[in-house]
Amino acid sequence: MAKKRKRKLKFRRIVLLMIFITIVILLFLAVKNNKSNSYEKKNHEKNVIEKENELSLIMVGDSLIHSSVYDDAYEDGIYNFDKMLSLISPIVKNYDLAFYNQETILGGTDIGLSSYPSFNSPQEVGDAFINAGFNLVSLANNHTLDRGSEAVISSNNYWKNQRDVLTSGSRNSRKDRNNIEIKEKNGIKYTLLAYTTTTNGIRSENDYYVNVYDEKQVKEDIERVRDKVDLLLVSMHWGEEYSFEITEEQEKIANYLASLGVDIVIGHHPHVIEPIDYVDDTLIIYSLGNFLSGQEGLERRIGLMVSVNIEKNNGDLMISKPTATLTYTNYNDGNVKSNFKVYPFNKVTDSILPGYRSYYDEYMDIITSRSGKVIKSPI
Length: 379
What we know:
Elements: H1 2-51, E1 54-64, H2 67-73, E2 74-75, E3 78-79, H3 89-92, E4 97-102, H4 124-131, E5 136-138, H5 148-160, E6 166-168, H6 174-178, E7 183-185, E8 188-196, H7 215-225, E9 231-237, H8 248-259, E10 264-268, E11 276-279, E12 282-285, E13 290-293, H9 298-301, E14 302-313, E15 316-330, E16 341-344, H10 356-367, E17 375-376
Parallel strand pairs: 1-4, 1-13, 4-5, 5-6, 8-9, 9-10, 10-12, 15-17
Antiparallel strand pairs: 1-14, 2-3, 7-8, 11-12, 14-15, 15-16
């Protein structure tokens, strides 16, 4: 009996010891977890503080919606362009600001869709770009007036109803045109102005339907907002179509805009990429090329995507790390479903674009030919 009692006592001691050890381990883990949460909270607060007075910006080129593009987006009675941007969206959503040029007017289906040479596109195009994270949109280009006032008014009404999206270049009234919208994020005030040097010979009595480039008007617009914003972006529809070379007119305008204190000039219209350069402290992106379009020819399917970091320090604005990468619009030729999709070049393979690495080198040489400050994004 004595031996049994000793065994029971020994067993109880072992059980109590195991319980004690378990409690100690649980207390240790609880303290460690609390410290970890405290560290993460402090680290998160630190990151929030560090992000104040900082912005990230990414820019892409033309949304040029031919009938082949909107036909491909049509399924079960609706237009859905989201899948075309599905590989780009995860990139864009990492940025505070994201720019693109809506080359074709979003007059919508009610007035009848149309393709080259007189475009009108579904408003679902805008939905897809907004869903992908774009929030800066240029509406001034040579196709703005393609379908007249009805399409312009419909397009502007669509964009006016989109929250947290800043557009420029086309308005429905002079009052709206002169009321330049200013936004603020992370303690940085910014705005976008947009102009085109051509309207394909189409004219309108209402000059506020599209901002046609005019030095006097541009100067007035910039002077109206320059001292009210930290970051001033100007979108320019300029240059020669399908040319990799910068024209004298582009250089003249770039110098003029720089003299007025513009921070970044975002260029488009040639449908192919052109170099990035600086005029004093003004970053000039001469042409981003096509982003999404139905145009044929490799040079019109490769576009430019540029990102920058923006920081305000003691009232001074610094724009740094201009980083360039390429995009490729892939689609099937012929009568089968086209399956349009925009690829960042780090997702391109030889099965998608044979010899893509050599094209990357060739096009990057064009982009960096005028400035050694441009960073090449690796593939």
